[in-house]
Amino acid sequence: MSVRVRFAPSPTGFLHIGGARTALFNWLYARHMQGTFVLRIEDTDTARNTQEAVDVILNGLRWLGLDWDEGPVTSAADGPSKGAYGPYFQSQRADIYKVRIEELKAKGLAYEQDGAIKFRMERSPIVIPDLVVGNVTRELTDREKLDPDFVIVRSDGQPVFHLVNVIDDLEMKITHVIRGEDHLANTAKHLALFRAFGVEPPKYAHIPLILNIDGSKMSKRDTGASLSTYLEEGYAPESVVNYLYLLGWSPKENREVVPLKEVIEMFDLPQILRHNARFDINKLHWINGEYIKSMTSHRFNTLAADALERLGIAVRSYPPDYVDAALATAKEKVKQFTELPQFTAFYFKETVELEPGAQLTAADKESLAALRKAFGKLDAFNVEALTAALKQVAAERKVKMGALVHPTRLACTGSTVGPSLYHLLEVLGKEQVLKRFDRAITSL
Ligand code: GLU
User: Fold this and answer.
1) N or C: which end of the chain has fewer CB within 10 A?
2) Residues 219, 225 contacting (CB under 8 angstroms)
3) What CATH number should be reported for the domain holding residue 381?
4) Does residue 205 sit in the same domain as residue 305?
């Protein structure tokens, strides 16, 4: 039997990092088993449904590369890159729910009370077999002992979460429900509903929660709670994915940077850790640095250009070769894409401003004038020629190379730190460098 899993988020306008990890684990399991990954938007709470809230989820999954495998075909290319199918929306499945509600009524397992429809719940404790947590016995609470039945359709006609969640899982032939441990408490109800429909329930795997580093529960406002902040904070999606699979799953050899392809080969549900995971932004920061180091220049340049554009630096209005060469000088320097402006903004500005506190002395300007002469004579404006020219000027003027390097960097970038000097000069090119020298020499 082929594995079918699903991610079933409610559109709240927010994709929690825990939700993203749930999606990832479902996707990984589907890819590992060569099964099917279904995306189902649980949007029966019509008051909260907006296109924006759905887009937050779709964009988040696309950013992470978690493509879903089926769904109703839509004319708009709503689906992941390869297909034109949207996710399933519960709001479009009311007819399916109606049939199933009638079925329960006909079986005497659902009845009306005060305008609502209630489900005749099982009376004895329910054992939940869980692939991560083990067998969990759900005893009835005192209130449930008096009346364990629960509402499945509200008096306004809205079917409730438990009912539609189960109907969809059975209609969609879901084989494994992988979801957050916060849903363990609902599972007895879900199992009873499956039995009421006369269907074998799926296997459950409830994954432990993600806590803050101090062990407290992560709230919406905590750093790193929302997936969208990772893009804004300058992380590559592949690092976030790597970081997420370490949160709650452990490759055998305790490695921390593991290529996705290998994870797909290894991933299995029993290896999901039983203890709560703790969120550690420093680890992500380190992982991102490792990914940046090993990613291709093409990938780096694409992500870096996106990040700079987002940060208001219009790199895409410059020739692509120039942008690539400029970004290449920053690749070894940054661990997070938000650090890029500090290293590359000067490439994409017509005039350089000195950073606060920095200044060029009269001696610096004399050095710059001497260098300008030497650089002006160069035919090949490359690292070797620039290094030789600077050396020669230093010897002629009997100064250390540092005494020339520092003002050169300031004149061309405005900053005391940045990419390797000779490389950045080569990228800027003769015309720009001489222009920047002239402006620095004549500045007050
Ligand atoms: N809509 C539910 C949620 O977002 C789905 C729970 C489930 O995966 O069964 O928590």
Assistant:
1) C
2) yes
3) 1.10.10.350
4) no
Of the residues 42, 93, 132, 194, which should be mutated to test ligand 1's pocket, given the most ligand atoms within 8 Å of the CB?
A: 42
Reported pTM: 0.91
- CB 187 within 8 Å of CB 125: no
Phi first, then psi: what are they for 86, rounded to 5°?
A: -85, 180
CATH number of domain containing 81:
3.40.50.620
Number of domains in the chain: 2
Secondary structure class of 250 (helix, strand, coil): coil
φ/ψ of 209, rounded to 5, equals: -75, 165
Q: Are residues 95 and 206 in the same domain?
A: yes
Q: How many CA atoms lie within 13 A of 44 on its CB side?
A: 21
Structural domain including 187 reads 4-211
CA distance 68 to 40: 10
Q: Does residue 188 sit in the same domain as residue 301?
A: no
Same domain, 75 and 176: yes
Q: 229 in a domain, yes or no?
A: no
Are 301 and 423 contained in the same domain?
yes
173 has catalytic annotation: no
Q: How far is the CA of 168 from the centre of ligand 1 (A)?
A: 12
Torsion 164-167-170-172 (CA) sign: negative
Are 186 and 332 contained in the same domain? Answer: no
The verdict on residue 23 lying in a domain is yes
pLDDT tens string 104-156: 999 999 999 999 999 999 999 999 999 999 999 988 888 888 899 999 999 99
DSSP 8-state class, residue 85: B
Q: Is residue 273 part of a domain?
A: no
Question: Best substitution site from 165, 169, 184, 190 to test ligand 1's pocket, by max atoms within 8 Å of Cβ?
Answer: 165
CB 90 within 8 A of CB 164: yes
Tell how far CA 321 is from the center of its chain.
29
Catalytic residue from among 82, 220, 252, 377: 220
DSSP secondary structure letter of residue 269 = G
The verdict on 196 and 54 lying in the same domain is yes
d(CA 168, CA 172): 6
Give the distance (Å) from ligand 1 centre to CA of residue 43.
11
Alpha-helical (H) ranges within 271-361 are 281-294, 297-310, 320-328, 340-344
Residue 299, pLDDT above cutoff 60: yes
123 inside domain: yes
Residue range 51-89, pLDDT digits in tens: 899 999 999 999 999 999 998 876 554 444 455 678 999
